Amino acid sequence: MKLGVMCSGNGTNFENIVRTCRKDEVVLMIYNKKGCGAYKRAAKFGIPHCYVDSKNETKIINEFKYAGVELIVLAGWMRIITPKLIEAFPNKIINIHPSLLPKYKGLNVIEKALDSDDVFTGCTVHYVTEELDSGDIICQRKVPIYDDDTVETLTKRIQREEHCILPRAIENVKYGL
């Protein structure tokens, strides 16, 4: 399956996808922040990549279609996807989110989990729909919240679990599981 990945940040999930997929599976990475870590990781691995302003979804659609992308993975894409992109790739866009959806949708979810009385949080891979962080769940993983946790310590533990479940979610989608 030809994968397209959309990134805004450091790119650790992107690198994890590249390392766990077959060599030719990731055919294009689009990023929307110039100089971001994901761009540098794509260059390091020789993955075709391009900068596209996140508001230019027509260009994003055209780039992915030209590359023959069959599944789009949002791996730290920090913008809301509009219906235009969803309609161009129906049921072919998945997202990794740092909470146990449906709890804590949107931004600052790790802070929300720390401010709650929750004893655990986690991460979720789900299909992207027009409603924010509300598509069908592909897989989840729990992460305990410790009394001495900070945003940084909890973020690192959640990211470790994201690195475990995102490749599994991609496999589940590929094989219809």
Provide a brief overview of the structure.
The chain is an alpha/beta fold and 177 residues long. The chain has six helices and seven strands.
Tally of strands: 7
Strand content: 15-25%
SSE order, as H and E?
EHEHEHEHEHEEH
Mean of all residue-level pLDDT scores: 96
In the CATH hierarchy, the architecture of the largest domain is: 3-Layer(aba) Sandwich
Cα separation of the termini: 15 Å
CATH topology of the largest domain: Rossmann fold
How many domains, as an integer?
Answer: 2
Secondary-structure-based class equals alpha/beta
What is the assigned CATH homologous superfamily of the largest domain? Formyl transferase, N-terminal domain
Q: State the share of residues found in helices, binned by percent.
A: 25-40%
What does this structure look like?
With 177 residues, the protein is an alpha/beta fold. The protein folds into two domains: 1-90, 3-Layer(aba) Sandwich (Rossmann fold); 98-177, 3-Layer(aba) Sandwich (Rossmann fold), CATH 3.40.50. The protein is 37% helix and 22% strand. The protein contains six helices and seven strands, in the order βαβαβαβαβαββα. The chain has helices at 12-20, 37-45, 57-66, 83-88, 109-115, 151-174, and strands at 3-7, 26-31, 49-51, 71-74, 93-97, 120-127, 137-144. A seven-stranded mixed sheet has the order 3-2-1-4-5-6-7, sandwiched between helices. Helix 2 links the parallel strand 2 and strand 3. Helix 1 (12-20) packs parallel to helix 2 and helix 1 (12-20) runs parallel beside helix 6. It is globular. It starts with a strand and ends with a helix. The mean pLDDT is 96.
